[in-house]
Design goal:
alpha+beta; Ubiquitin-like (UB roll); Uridine Diphospho-n-acetylenolpyruvylglucosamine Reductase, domain 3; Enolase-like, domain 1; five-stranded antiparallel β-sheet; four-stranded antiparallel β-sheet; 16 helices; 21 strands
Length: 507
């Protein structure tokens, strides 16, 4: 089976590579094929950030007559497939002082200078990853705008320092905007990327299929049902690096234009399955700002930049954080094939551990999320008020996997709970709705007693397992306590979680 030609931009030049196997990771390509050894392998699972690189691609703008926008993303190269960067621009740490597209030339990049001046490099193993996360932050920061400490912490959420030296690195992030600026020559880069896009396609290469429209994707899925579907590869990448699986044929959905859109409809958001987690969460937070802290804890930023909402949903892991949230929001999924499409509630997609009802020729196409009443024209004084809380419990604050995930959405009218919707992760073989707990809250007064009764129901509704992340008894106890926290937060009480705890003495 022949492999497609791989072309991307690096250091102002087109890199053309032949005969790259479909399962080859970007990190393997960099270190073993291109001798780019500054990019390190730390964990090979997208967890530590030592392998972080930055990608740039053209994104269509509206109106279409305007120049295509450039989007920069820091991603983990250890679980990124090499062929996924076809048609994109790439930077590693060693490119920052040798890329002719960076102007002015012949000077250190502000990221490099700031790290030196703030003593942000320690043993050096993880430093290239920090450099690239900061480069991604620098490129996405509006010109002349200083980086806040909060922005720095979000940008570095996917990078682990083995020497525990985070403070000087965060200092460097804030300092780099005060240094003489260095910019990407975006006019030249747009021209190069456009030329790549219009390059004549090579001979058919069935080992790595990357259709650019939905019709071709569905046709490819019908013709090649055995092909492994990949999107952001944050999970399939682990099968390659940890389980040493190899795939003869991969079907990449991330180039499908229709599935890369977030469409705002009168009463819902329709998010394409190939929309990145970063963009999907931004769309949800725009209408529900209370979700921001939760979405930023989903994973480190490089994982959110690569992973897709559709991939997370289709994967169906019981500890995937997006599904409890989407279940609580009454999300529906659209499955598509050459035979047509069908729509169903998200919680009905799963039949068992990482199993679902999709036929061999179907793909997950869209996730539809109802808007809050205030977002589609209902007056602010409407009788029903939405109260929404999302909780993630994990061993580590950032870039970690849930032991328990709980999302509670209530509709409250006249002091009573008119509707309750609760999504739960980490307690069963699939992400689930807490239907018994919902029933126990529905119609009840918004009171401590109602939540205490519901907490008892929630603790008894599931039979979680004990594993490396938490014991079964711990998970049950946490579920009940999170519901109690939800009640306290609904009453405006502070200092009920570490996120809101204030240790400063009262004035």
């Amino acid at each position: 089976m022949n492999h497609p030609v791989l072309r991307f931009i690096r250091r102002g030049q087109t890199v053309t590579l032949h005969d790259v196997p479909p399962s080859r990771t970007l990190l393997e390509l960099l270190r073993e094929d291109l001798s780019c050894t500054d990019t390190k392998e730390g964990c090979a699972e997208g967890d530590c950030g030592a392998c972080t690189v930055v990608l740039a691609e053209l994104e269509p703008t509206s109106p279409a007559t305007e120049p295509a926008a450039l989007r920069y993303r820091a991603v983990n190269s250890c679980i990124r497939l090499a062929h996924s960067i076809n048609g994109l621009a790439l930077w590693t740490a060693q490119d920052l002082d040798s890329d002719p597209l960076l102007v002015p030339a012949a000077c250190s990049h502000p990221v490099q200078t700031a790290l030196v001046q703030c003593h942000g490099s320690q043993c050096g193993f993880c430093t290239p990853g920090f450099v690239m996360s900061l480069f991604g932050l620098y490129q996405n920061q509006p010109s002349g705008q200083a980086v806040t400490r909060e922005q720095a912490q979000v940008a570095l959420s996917g990078n682990l320092c083995r020497c525990t030296g985070y403070r000087p690195i965060v200092d460097a992030a804030q300092h780099m905007s005060a240094l003489p600026p260095v910019h990407v020559n975006e006019a030249a880069l747009r021209q190069q990327l456009s030329a790549l896009h219009t390059t004549a396609a090579s001979a058919p290469a069935p080992s790595y299929l990357a259709p650019d429209n939905l019709a071709d994707l569905l046709a490819a899925r019908a013709a090649q049902p055995q092909a492994q579907i990949v999107a952001g590869c944050t999970d399939v990448g682990l099968w390659i690096t940890q389980r040493h699986q190899q795939f003869a044929q991969l079907l990449d959905v991330t180039r499908v234009a229709e599935l890369r859109q977030v469409l705002r409809q009168p009463d819902h958001l329709a998010m394409g399955a190939a929309v990145t987690l970063t963009d999907a969460f931004d769309a949800l937070v725009a209408d529900r700002p209370e979700l921001r802290a939760f979405t930023e804890r989903f994973a480190g930023l490089p994982v959110r930049n690569a992973g897709t909402l559709g991939g997370n949903v289709a994967n169906g892991s019981p500890i995937g954080d997006s599904m409890p949230l989407l279940i609580a929001l009454h999300a529906r999924v659209v499955l598509a094939s050459v035979r047509g499409s069908r729509e169903l509630p998200l919680e009905n997609l799963y039949t068992g551990y990482r199993q679902n009802i999709m036929a061999a020729d179907e793909v997950l196409a869209w996730i539809k999320v109802p808007l809050p009443a205030s977002a589609h024209g209902e007056p602010s004084g409407a009788a029903h008020k939405e109260f929404l809380r999302a909780y993630k419990i994990s061993k580590r604050q950032d870039d970690d996997i849930s032991a328990v995930c709980l999302v509670v959405r209530l509709s409250v009218a006249d002091g009573r709970i008119a509707e309750a919707s609760i999504g739960v992760g980490g307690v069963a073989a699939t992400p689930v709705r807490a239907v018994q707990t919902e029933a126990s809250l529905r119609g009840q007064p918004m009171s401590a007693a109602s939540f205490e009764r519901a907490a008892a129901v929630l603790c008894a509704e599931f039979s979680p397992i004990s594993d490396m992340r938490a014991s079964a008894s711990y998970r049950r106890t946490v579920l009940g306590n999170l519901l109690r926290r939800c009640w306290l937060e609904s009453q405006g009480q502070a200092n009920v979680s570490l996120a809101t705890l204030n240790l400063e003495p009262a004035a």
